[in-house]
Amino acid sequence: MSVININKHSFRKEVLESEKPVLLDIWVPWSGRNSASVAEEIAAERDDIKVVRMNAHDSPELSAELNIKHVPSMALFKNGKMISKTIETAIKSSVLAII
């Protein structure tokens, strides 16, 4: 499965209403730390979770609502609720530990 790009308009459908657990990759274009490759690897390897990406710069209200303090970050949602998050997004094992 590939990574799905989302924004504040598609967040509810793709994350909160998902039947699968959702790994949300939160990023900004100017960040020197890149989480895209880890997100893409996990999406390719795991069909039991949905992997989505959100540009925090384009969705500041949603980032604030989710209490995102560090970018990049990743958060895991199950049944419409955030259950875990990490800022160690470049370390695949750290991301897998929250799943």
The percent range for helix content is 25-40%
Strand order of the largest sheet: 1-3-2-4-5
Question: What amount of the residues lies in strands?
Answer: 25-35%
Distance between the termini: 16 Å
Kindly describe this structure.
This protein is about 30% helix and about 25% strand. The chain has about 100 residues and is an alpha/beta fold. It has a single domain (about 5-99), classed as 3-Layer(aba) Sandwich (Glutaredoxin). A five-stranded mixed beta sheet has the order 1-3-2-4-5. The longest helix is centred in the middle third of the chain and has 10 residues, at about 35-45. The model has no long low-confidence stretch (mean pLDDT about 90).
Write the SSE topology.
Layout: E1 4-6, H1 11-16, E2 22-27, H2 36-45, E3 50-55, H3 60-65, E4 73-78, E5 81-86, H4 92-98
Parallel strand pairs: 1-3, 2-3
Antiparallel strand pairs: 2-4, 4-5
Describe this protein with a few key phrases.
Glutaredoxin; five-stranded mixed sheet; 99 residues; globular
Summarize the entry for a quick read:
This protein is an alpha/beta fold and 99 residues long.
